Amino acid sequence: MSPFPPLDRSTIADLSIFGGDGALVEQLLHRHAVHGEHRFTTDLSRYAGSTFVVVLKTNEGMRYEKVVVK
Question: How far is the C-alpha of 25 from the C-alpha of 37, rounded, in Å?
Answer without folding.
Answer: 25
